């Protein structure tokens, strides 16, 4: 069911755990050579204390059938990012077929801010959300584009969120995610003449360890907020590997350039490509009746598969969120 990516070279930033780890494994099981980055290579470092490490991700990728090269990188340091791409350029003779901009440094700060309004949160929350995130995505894309445009092929996937459309975790988070969407869109314009695609990818609610903590932290006192409740409820959550399998299928799409510059939704791509997660499931899109109706009528959750997967306009979803009690 996964695409054949043998002979392809991919880079997944922030792959020591969570969604990045799942993406890297999904590309590995499709046969790709996967470079992965993270801020440490073993679990003795406190940065990786929540789960996993680069070495564990590397082992999982190789077990899935891929080839992996783990490179410790602090994505807040431009020089380390530059050195990473110089290494790939040298080792792969200039070949880089896929960059997945996934590294993100804001989760712990979002948890500690516990849903405070922006004027009560520490000012450092902005940089925590958007330095290793929006800014590091731009830097990585800068160096990736130098390689891809030379070969006139490639794909840059920027992991974003529906939080760029609707208020979920506050101003710093939402502004950064909205900017990621614009980053992908504007890069697509300049990359198109070189046959290089750029898209923004919205996973659904991905059940990573850190996201469990973030959802639980934001639930307290905000149970009636539609945006928060949809996350904290843990209904229809996606797995990290599911996202990776969708990206693998996307890479193999002969009509990829038709998606250039657009926001793509993981669940909808999965339905189109026939992708399922490791449990054989294909979660519903966050803008489908199958996901939205059970949010208002919880008794329908056990029968969600019987609900048509019709798409609801974004403006209507946004209106419902804005009319719900505020965080």
UniProtKB/TrEMBL annotation:
This is SDR family NAD(P)-dependent oxidoreductase. It comes from the Bacteria. SUPFAM superfamilies: NAD(P)-binding Rossmann-fold domains (SSF51735). Signal peptide: none annotated. InterPro entries: NAD(P)-bd_dom_sf (IPR036291), SDR_fam (IPR002347). Pfam families: adh_short (PF00106).
């Amino acid at each position: 069911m996964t695409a054949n990516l043998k002979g392809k070279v991919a880079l997944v930033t922030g792959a020591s755990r969570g969604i990045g780890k799942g993406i890297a494994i999904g590309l590995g099981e499709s046969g790709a050579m996967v470079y992965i980055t993270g801020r440490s290579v073993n679990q003795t470092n406190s940065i990786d204390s929540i789960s996993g490490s680069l070495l564990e991700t590397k082992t999982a990728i190789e077990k899935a059938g891929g080839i992996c090269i783990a490179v410790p990188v602090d994505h807040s340091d431009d020089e380390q990012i530059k050195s990473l791409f110089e290494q790939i350029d040298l080792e792969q003779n200039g070949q880089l077929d896929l960059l997945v901009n996934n590294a993100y440094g804001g989760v712990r700060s979002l948890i500690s801010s516990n849903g405070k309004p922006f004027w009560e949160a520490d000012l450092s929350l902005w940089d925590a959300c958007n330095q290793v995130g929006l800014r590091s995505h731009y830097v990585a894309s800068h160096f990736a584009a130098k390689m891809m445009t030379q070969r006139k092929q490639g794909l840059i996937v920027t992991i974003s969120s529906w939080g760029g459309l609707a208020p979920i975790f506050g101003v710093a988070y939402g502004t950064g995610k909205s900017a990621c969407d614009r980053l992908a869109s504007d890069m697509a314009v300049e990359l198109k003449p070189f046959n290089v695609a750029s898209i923004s990818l919205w996973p659904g609610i991905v059940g990573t360890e850190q996201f469990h903590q973030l959802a639980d932290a934001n639930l307290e006192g905000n149970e009636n907020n539609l945006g928060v409740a949809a996350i904290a409820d843990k209904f229809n959550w996606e797995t990290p590997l599911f996202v990776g399998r969708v990206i693998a299928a996307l890479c193999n799409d002969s009509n990829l350039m038709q998606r250039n510059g657009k926001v793509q939704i993981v669940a909808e791509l999965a339905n189109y490509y026939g992708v399922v997660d490791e449990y054989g499931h294909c979660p519903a899109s966050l803008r489908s009746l199958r996901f939205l109706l059970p949010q208002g009528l919880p008794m329908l959750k056990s029968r969600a598969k019987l609900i048509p997967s019709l798409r609801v306009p974004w403006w209507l979803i946004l209106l419902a969120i804005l009319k719900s009690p505020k965080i």
